[in-house]
Amino acid sequence: MDYASALEYLDSLKGEGIKPRLEHTKFILERLGFRQDFRVIHVAGSKGKGSVSAFANSILCEAGFKTGFYLSPPLQGFVERISVNRRFVSEREVVRLVEDVKPFVEELSFSSLGKPTFFEVVTAMALRYFQIKGVEFAVLEVGMGGCLDSTNVVDSAVSVVTNIELEHTRYLGSMIAQITREKAGIIKPNTTCVTESEDSEVLGILEGICAERNARLVKVGSDVRYGKIKSDSRGQSFGISGGFNYRSLRIKLLGEHQVANAVTAVTAVRAAINISEAKVRSGLIKTKWPGRLEVVSKKPTVLLDGAHTMRGVAALVASLELFEYDKLYIVLGISKDKPMTDITRKLAPLATEVIATKAAVENAGDPRVILGEAVKHTESAVIEDVGEAVRYVRRRARPRDLILITGSLYVVGEARRVWHRKVVL
What is the reported pLDDT for 363? Predict the structure, then answer.
């Protein structure tokens, strides 16, 4: 088996769709002889979980811990899903992992449990890889939900629940309370849960669940306070107080929401292990999170941001104030399970022109839905191929203009390839 055939085998499992459950991942791990010899920081939420995970991973790496990081979805390629100390799993290692799990995938397929899904198998591969590499910590980003997400087969030292929005309602429920309970399923008894949510309904549910499980709930914004000092297009500085005090911390990630994400990550890491202020500072400033308010070109400025929820779009709109520009061109592609019309309605009035596009994935939304709303507000067109859409607006834009590519991480990932930029953690 080579790398291409390994990916082809994994892709063949995508036909199983999404099936919230734990049994299949547990089955594969048991057959692999997996044992958890590392501590876990487990991160769930509707928005911000990727950034929180990236900050936590960077801080732990800077502190000298051998750290595994499992994220979903990747921006440009499969290997980005799994890393140890900021180094992605190699193609050769992916092949070996697929060869290891394949017999047990086949065994499952012919059992009463049935065939596993892509995410169940890849999660088992990641955890097995962390065991092989002898990591001391693993930062796991939940794929969807929490309680029945495949990553929830681990025992976590600290769980994080970021912000909660209506999402994946087919699987998680149609009300905030239902989604919160599902995501809070990662909270383990006698551990610590950190949240950055300020929603009273969400906090009430988290408080109740933590009380039931004898878990400590730490609320960013009240138990741990922070204040932004300075923000510009090169980064942000802020201070933290409450339990520990840090002044003038700095991050390169843009957007006011990233300050809250950074504070949440610091709080989670500090709950798991006591590390020096110097390592916290170093970990924060070295954090990279591609595709999130990422500037990839100048004159014109090209900004990539995978804003795919209404909260994310609101944060993006607020962050546009960091940039000076004459005209704004937006390349917009949104997954079909997201609020396509609402997102378009929020962004289109800001733009000189909107180009509706479509990522080359099954879940991509119809760009004609975007066009139908966008034309009510500004000049608009459809160019389905993301690369062609990007090249079109680059020809249109002048040096003092801003090009924004957003709506889906899949769209951002495809657009990023125009610059042949590799993802680096």
Answer: 87
- What pLDDT, on a 0 to 100 scale, did the predictor assign at position 397? 97
DSSP state of 364: B
Mean of pLDDT over the chain: 95
**In the 8-state DSSP scheme, what is residue 163?**
B
pLDDT of residue 88: 98
| pLDDT > 90: percent of the chain | 88
Q: What is the pLDDT of residue 340?
A: 96
Angle in degrees, CA 423, 367, 338, rounded to 5? 70
pTM as predicted: 0.93
Which burial class, exposed, middle or buried, applies to 337 when counting CB atoms under 10 A from its CB (0-12, 13-18, 19+)?
Answer: middle
Q: For position 3, what pLDDT does the model report?
A: 98
Q: Report whether 308 contacts 338 (CB < 8 A).
A: yes
Q: Is the pLDDT of residue 423 over 90?
A: no
**What DSSP string describes 259-303?**
HHHHHHHHHHHHHH----HHHHHHHHHT---TTSSEEEETTTEEE
DSSP string, 205-256: HHHHHHHHTTPEEEEBTTTBEEEEEEEETTEEEEEEESSS-EEEEEE---SH
DSSP three-state, residue 398: coil
Q: What is the mean pLDDT of residues 389-410?
A: 96
CA atoms within 13 A of residue 180's CA, in its CB half-sphere: 20
Radius of gyration of the chain (CA): 21
Asked whether residue 389 carries a pLDDT value surpassing 90, the answer given is yes
Q: Whose structure tokens read 């912000």?
A: 163
Domains assigned to the chain: 3-285 (3.40.1190.10), 294-417 (3.90.190.20)
Strand partners, 41: 139, 158
Distances from the Cα of 191 to the Cαs of 31, 185, 263, in angstroms?
28, 13, 19
Distance of alpha carbon 24 from alpha carbon 57, whole angstroms = 27
State the Cα–Cα distance between residues 353 and 234, nearest whole angstrom.
26
Q: Which residue has the tokens 């949440």?
A: 264
Could you give the CA distance from residue 249 to residue 228 in angstroms, rounded to a whole number? 9
Amino acid letter for position 107: E
DSSP percent split of the chain into helix, strand, coil, nearest 5: 45, 20, 35
> In this structure, are residues 133 and 66 in contact, taking their beta carbons and an 8 Å threshold?
yes
Q: Distance from CA of residue 25 to its chain's centroid?
A: 21
CA angle at 170 for the pair 168 and 171, rounded to the nearest 5° = 75
